[in-house]
Design a protein that fits this description.
With 536 residues, this protein is mainly beta. It is built from 2 helices and 34 strands. Strands 20, 21, 22, 23 and 24 form a 5-stranded antiparallel β-sheet that branches. It has a 5-stranded antiparallel β-sheet with strand order 28-27-26-25-32, with no helix packed on it. Strand 14 and strand 15 form a beta hairpin. The longest helix has 21 residues. The relative contact order is 0.08.
């Protein structure tokens, strides 16, 4: 678990760090021991006590876990908001060759309005083997508009980094919509889309041309490929400009899943204030598209909205009804959110919800959309059977403090919702932390609390999307094998027996009382009351 103070923790089930952890990130440059400019500020005029010189670089992106140096042991890779990537070994120490940094070119771009960039990371690192050496490489999509790839020794993979922007736009400041260089917040999804056996990268940028943003598929060979951008891309997609940095272009992470079984994944991505869109590998729309209109709502949906749309959150994929075909799940907002944007952000009421679509019809599953308490900013739901009943649940937190788990019919899982008392903007995750074969569910809040609950689901139970961007490597690809899960279910609770054969039983907690027994109890009460009255 990474935090915004610059620590990476490896916590046991008892809440204590493993030996050698937490790992500390490099200090923020402005507050490092060789920087003195900040000391003139009033806040620094007195003695300052802190755990180490300087404050560590904040980590807002989900760590990736995988063996990047080929020693057979899992490594933890993090990317900081200030532009540093660190690969950490099992002992909590940086691997040889790390940390590494972005090029640091943001300042050199001046104040050109076409080049709104920075040096840092919001997108999570992604681990995948791009050069075929059977070692995982590290992909980092940066605020400076470039995609970097490092090897497990800290060296850069040949052909990377690459600047990502729309080559069809004129590089002319006099043009009404000249080419931009923009931040990348979208975590890339990786999968082979052109059939050459090398994973390709799908991502979006913060480019905003009027009402439209851009989605790209990059050849996994980078600059060594004849063309960096695959044919048919980039795709222009409607998306609203609603917030600085995190709400312009498309900050959302795409997902990959093979709907039609042809061996080539489809691409799932949504803009801000627009519907979830499914694209084929050639950039063309998939024949069936998810509908957000009320006519497509499930019969057990509980939202009061007449339409839903994507916002600042990312899709997940998983088989909710057990029919062997996966569904698409997305945090959504009510139609009034779009109307508010049109009316210069006039204050309007609207619901937030979770939507889940049948991809054969484009309509929603029976229990969706499900209204949720508050905003779902940056959320990527997981799809895991958390109660062991054999049905995968959609699990998500929100700014309303609760973690919910709904099955395909919109029924809340046993023991849910869970209360945290804080805004949840992170994706929950599951795993067997105490070795009992059952899952624990973990999530963190914006104000710095980590919660872990025991749940009934099994570590060998049904799950399709168990953490942010699908898996520990953050691939965003449904085809990536998870390191847990299976097909086990929790046996149903035994039905209590009663000595009185044929008696109907009514359960309350752990007690069971037969209907004749209830009748006898009521009769006794009535007799007692009658006697008391007779005495008075």
């Amino acid at each position: 678990m990474a935090d915004s103070v610059g620590f990476v923790h490896a916590l046991r089930a008892d809440g204590k760090d493993l030996p050698g952890w937490p790992a500390a990130m490099p200090a923020i440059a402005a507050l490092s021991t060789d920087s003195t400019g900040h000391l003139a500020a009033p806040a620094w005029s007195g003695a300052v006590t802190r755990t180490r010189p300087g404050y560590g670089q904040a980590i807002l992106a989900t760590p990736a876990v995988g063996d990047v140096n080929g020693d057979g042991k899992p490594d933890v890779v993090v990317a900081t908001y200030d532009g540093t990537v660190v690969a950490i070994g099992f002992d909590g120490k940086p691997l040889p060759g790390f940390p590494v940094r972005v090029d640091g070119i943001a300042k050199s771009q001046g104040t050109d309005p076409r080049k709104i960039i920075d040096d840092g990371f919001f997108a999570a690192p992604v681990l995948v083997d791009l050069d075929g050496d059977r070692k995982l490489d590290i992909i980092g999509a940066s605020f400076d508009g470039q995609v970097y790839v490092w090897k497990g020794d800290g060296s850069r993979l040949a052909g990377w980094p690459q600047l990502i922007n729309d080559p069809s736009r004129p590089d002319d400041i006099k043009d009404p919509e000249p080419r931009q260089r923009a931040r990348i917040l979208s975590t890339p999804a990786v999968g082979d889309l052109n059939g050459d056996g090398i994973p390709d990268l799908t991502l979006a940028t913060n480019e905003q041309y009027g009402e439209y943003a851009r989605v790209y598929v990059l050849d996994g060979r980078g600059g060594k490929a004849p063309n960096l951008i695959l044919p048919g891309w980039p795709v222009s997609m409607n998306s609203k400009d609603v917030l600085p940095v995190v709400g312009i272009g498309i900050p959302n992470a795409p997902a990959l899943g093979d709907i039609d079984g042809d061996g080539v994944p489809e691409i799932f991505i949504n803009g801000i204030g627009t519907r979830l869109t499914i694209l084929k590998a050639n950039g063309q729309p998939y024949p069936v598209q998810p509908s957000g209109n009320k006519q497509a709502f499930g019969e057990k949906a509980n939202t009061r909205e007449f339409s839903t749309m994507g916002f600042i959150a990312s899709p997940a994929l998983g088989d909710l009804d057990g029919d062997g075909r996966f569904e698409a799940i997305l945090p959504t907002a009510g139609a009034n959110a779009a109307l508010s944007m049109v009316k210069a952000f006039q204050r309007l009421d609207y619901e937030m919800s979770l939507s889940a679509w049948d991809l054969t019809t484009g309509k929603m599953k029976p229990g969706f959309p499900q209204a949720i308490e508050d905003y779902l900013f940056f959320v990527n739901p997981i799809v895991v059977d958390v109660d062991g009943d054999g049905l995968r649940d959609v699990v998500s937190g929100s700014a309303g403090y609760f973690v919910h788990a709904w099955n395909v019919d919109g029924k809340e899982a046993r023991g849910f919702p869970k209360m945290t008392g804080g805004w949840i903007a992170a994706t929950p995750t599951v795993g067997d932390m105490d070795g009992d074969g059952k899952l624990e569910l973990a999530t963190i809040t914006r104000n710095g609390w980590l919660f872990v609950w025991h749940v009934r689901g099994l570590s060998k139970g049904r799950m399709d999307w168990d953490s942010f961007h699908h898996d520990l490597r953050n691939t965003g690809n449904l085809a990536t094998k998870l390191d847990q899960g299976g097909d086990e279910v929790v046996p149903p609770d035994p039905i209590p027996t009663d000595a009185e054969a044929g008696a109907c039983q009514c359960q309350l907690g752990r007690r069971s009382t037969t209907v004749p027994g209830l009748f006898a109890a009521l009769l006794l009460i009535c007799v007692t009351m009658f006697r008391r009255r007779a005495r008075t």
